[in-house]
Amino acid sequence: MVVRLGCYKKEDLEEALDRAYEGEKFSAVARTSSTPLRTLFKKSKELQTTGNIVERRRGSLHSFYQSRKLIWCRTGMPFQPLTKGWYGRFISRHPLLMPRAAEKIARVRNMVDTDSVRTLFYAITKRVVELQLSGDRVFNMDETSFMHKGTSSRVLALKGSSNVWSKETRPNFHMTVVAAVNAAGAALPSLIIVPGKRIYKTDRAALSVENARVTGAPKGFSNEGVFRLRLAMFAAEAAKINAHFSVVLVLENSSTHHELGT
Questions:
Q1: Co-location of 15 and 143 in the same domain
Q2: Are 128 and 213 within one domain?
Q3: What Å distances lie between residue 101 and 56, 169, 239, CA to CA?
Q4: Lower CB count within 10 Å: N or C terminus of the chain?
Q5: Whole-angstrom Cα distance, residue 250 to residue 231?
Q6: Do 45 and 120 fall within a single domain?
Q7: Residue at 21 is within a domain
Q8: Which is higher by pLDDT, 234 or 172?
Q9: Quick one: 113 and 28 in the same domain?
Q10: For residue 90, is it within any domain?
Q11: What secondary structure letter does DSSP report for 229?
């Protein structure tokens, strides 16, 4: 038995046809050559009809399919499930690949390290000493998003790679809640940010949190415009509890929303 290579040369085909014309059976020739039995029958009939063997190469795709090829690659179409055998052969041909557990990149970005905590501590301490602040003049303003929490998935990655990230899943709905509390325990009214540019009266009437405000943003997260409204709201509400300015306002993940002139 010979090993099928999936392709054959013209010389191999001519040799196989010569053996068949000398009286050897086509099936016996196909078993001991690299030319498939179906090809032997086809080329033999072609040789008898035209007198020679015509080599044909597969032409290019139609212009319509050429233009759609990039879209197909990006969307993974046409979709066909891979079998366990195909995956095993693929892994055996690429020993540098291995299955890994993908990690959500947002979780790593939100991790707090020791240097960040130390920097925040010394910065607040410096302002407290310089401005002689009491606990009612140090505020922490934080925003929390309520959204779907994705799970990790198994992906193919290079052996030895330190980090493997997976794509964030898009939630069906989410909202962001902004709260501000000072070190003395006094809490200011919260701000709720929902997706959309308009707030319906029915949604506003359904708000059951006392003195809370609600606004909208295109993606439901805080942006520069919402951040400015938050500062104006903070100043107005802090004055109601007789907070003495200047104050220290600790903001989390808001460095992209404000400038020095804000």
A1: no
A2: yes
A3: 46, 16, 50
A4: N
A5: 12
A6: no
A7: yes
A8: 234
A9: no
A10: no
A11: H
Over residues 144-163, the pLDDT tens digits come to 766 555 555 666 666 766 66
Same domain, 113 and 194: yes
- pLDDT(110) > 60: no
Domain count, the chain: 2
Pair 123, 246 in one domain: yes
Q: How far does CA 118 lie from the centroid of its chain?
A: 32
Tell me, what's the pLDDT at 262?
A: 47
Residue 82 domain-assigned? no
Q: Are 230 and 178 in contact (CB under 8 A)?
A: yes
DSSP 60-106: PPPHHHHHHHHHHHHHT-S--PPPHHHHHHHHHH-TTEEEEE-EEHH
179 found inside a domain: yes
User: Which residue matches tokens 């910065």?
Assistant: 123
Report the relative pairing of strands 187-195 and 97-101 from DSSP bridges. Answer: unpaired
67-107 pLDDT, tens digit each = 777 777 777 766 777 788 888 888 888 888 877 776 665 55
Place of tokens 């068949």: 20
Return the SS3 of 158: strand
Q: On the CB side of 45, how many CA atoms lie within 13 Å of its CA?
A: 5
Alpha carbons 169 and 150: distance in angstroms, whole number: 6
Burial 213-243 (b: 16+ CB within 10 A, else e): bbbbbeebbbeeebbeebbebbeebbeeeeb
**Which domain covers residue 36, as residue numbers?**
10-50
Instruction: Tell me how far apart the alpha carbons of residues 254 and 257 are, in angstroms, rounded to a whole number.
Output: 5
Q: Kindly state whether residues 123 and 207 are assigned to the same domain.
A: yes
Indicate if 43 and 118 belong to the same structural domain: no
Q: Is 188 exposed, middle or buried (CB count within 10 Å of its CB: 0-12, 13-18, 19+)?
A: buried
